[in-house]
C-alpha cells in the first residue's frame, strides 16, 4: 500500500544543475581546476563536501588544503549558488510535476523531500511548492550522503511511514541506489541505461504518471 512519495529536488522538481555547475566552475577556476558539464554530471545527487573532494581529486589537489580551508571553499561555492537561485520561480518547475503532486495529494498520500541540498527549503519556497510537502528532510543533519539511504529513511521517519510503503523519485544513480537500499520502490527519471536499477524509469518528468506508477507498484508488490 502506497502511503508516501519521497522526491529528490534537483532534476526532479526543478533543474538547478546548471546553477550548481556555474558555482562549482567558478570555484574550480579559482583553484586552477577546469571542470566541464560532463564532469558536473558525476556530482549529481551527492553532498557539497563530497562534490568538493571529487573536484580536488580531479585536479590532483586533494592533499593541498586543510579541512578548514575545504569548508570555506564549500561555503564560498554555496554563497554563489544561493545568489544564482534567488531568481527561481514557479516557471522553473519541471513539466508534469505540478500535476503529479496534485494527483498524489488528491489520493491522500503524503509527500516528502529527500534532497542532498541544504538550500532545498528555499528553492521550494521560490517555486511556490513548499506547502505541497508534508516533510522536508534536513540534509545538514545527515552524516552520510547518497548512495547511503539515510536521507530517504529520514524523510520516511519524518512522515511517519514505513519505508516499504514509500515510493522514491530520483534522477541520479546514487539516488536510485539510496532508494533501493532504503527498501522503497524506486522511480527513475532520465536515461534508462544508467538508471536501470530503478523499479521503473521515465525518460523525463513530463512522462511521470501517477496511475501508471501505482499500477506498477501494485504489480511489483504482488510478485
- Quickly count the domains: 2
Q: In DSSP terms, counting alpha (H) and pi (I) runs of 4 or more, how many helices?
A: 9
pLDDT average, as an integer? 94
Shape: globular
Strand order of the largest sheet: 3-2-1-4-5-6
- Biggest pleated sheet: 6 strands, parallel
Helicity, as a percent range = 40-55%
State the fourth-level CATH superfamily of the largest domain.
HAD superfamily/HAD-like
The rounded Rg comes to 17 Å
Query: What is the third-level CATH name, the topology of the largest domain?
Result: Rossmann fold
Oligomer: single chain
- Helix and strand content put the structural class at alpha/beta
* Residue fraction in strands: 5-15%
* Straight-line N-to-C gap: 14 Å
The CATH architecture assignment of the largest domain turns out to be 3-Layer(aba) Sandwich
Main CATH class of the largest domain:
Alpha Beta
Could you list the spans in which at least 5 consecutive residues all have pLDDT below 50?
none
Work out the number of β strands: 6
SSE sequence, one letter per element: EHHHHHEHEHEHEEH
What does this protein look like?
This protein is of the alpha/beta class. The protein has two domains: 4-13 and 93-222, HAD superfamily/HAD-like (Rossmann fold); 17-85, DNA polymerase, domain 1 (Orthogonal Bundle), CATH 1.10.150.240. It is 44% helix and 10% strand. It has nine helices and six strands, in the order βαααααβαβαβαββα. It has helices at 17-31, 37-40, 48-58, 67-85, 97-106, 120-127, 150-159, 173-181, 210-222, and strands spanning 4-7, 110-113, 135-136, 166-170, 185-189, 200-202. Strands 3-2-1-4-5-6 form a six-stranded parallel β-sheet, sandwiched between helices.
Amino acid at each position: 500500500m502506497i502511503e508516501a512519495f519521497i522526491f529528490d529536488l534537483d532534476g526532479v522538481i526543478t533543474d538547478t544543475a546548471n546553477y550548481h555547475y556555474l558555482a562549482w566552475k567558478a570555484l574550480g577556476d579559482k583553484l586552477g581546476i577546469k571542470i566541464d558539464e560532463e564532469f558536473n554530471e558525476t556530482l549529481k545527487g551527492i553532498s557539497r563536501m563530497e562534490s568538493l573532494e571529487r573536484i580536488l581529486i580531479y585536479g590532483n589537489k586533494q592533499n593541498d588544503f586543510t579541512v578548514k580551508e575545504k569548508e570555506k571553499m564549500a561555503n564560498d561555492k554555496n554563497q554563489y549558488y544561493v545568489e544564482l537561485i534567488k531568481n527561481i520561480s514557479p516557471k522553473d518547475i519541471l513539466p508534469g510535476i505540478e500535476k503529479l503532486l496534485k494527483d498524489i495529494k488528491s489520493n491522500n498520500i503524503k509527500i516528502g523531500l529527500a534532497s542532498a541540498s541544504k538550500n532545498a527549503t528555499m528553492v521550494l519556497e521560490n517555486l511556490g511548492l513548499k506547502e505541497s510537502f508534508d516533510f522536508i528532510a534536513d540534509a545538514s543533519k545527515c552524516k552520510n550522503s547518497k548512495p547511503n539511504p539515510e536521507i530517504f529513511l529520514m524523510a520516511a521517519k519524518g512522515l511517519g511511514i514505513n519505508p516499504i510503503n514509500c515510493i522514491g523519485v530520483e534522477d541520479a544513480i546514487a539516488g536510485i541506489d539510496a532508494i533501493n537500499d532504503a527498501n522503497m520502490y524506486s522511480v527513475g527519471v532520465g536515461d534508462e541505461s544508467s538508471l536501470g536499477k530503478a523499479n521503473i524509469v521515465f525518460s523525463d518528468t513530463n512522462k511521470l504518471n501517477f496511475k501508471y506508477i501505482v499500477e506498477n507498484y501494485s504489480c511489483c508488490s504482488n510478485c
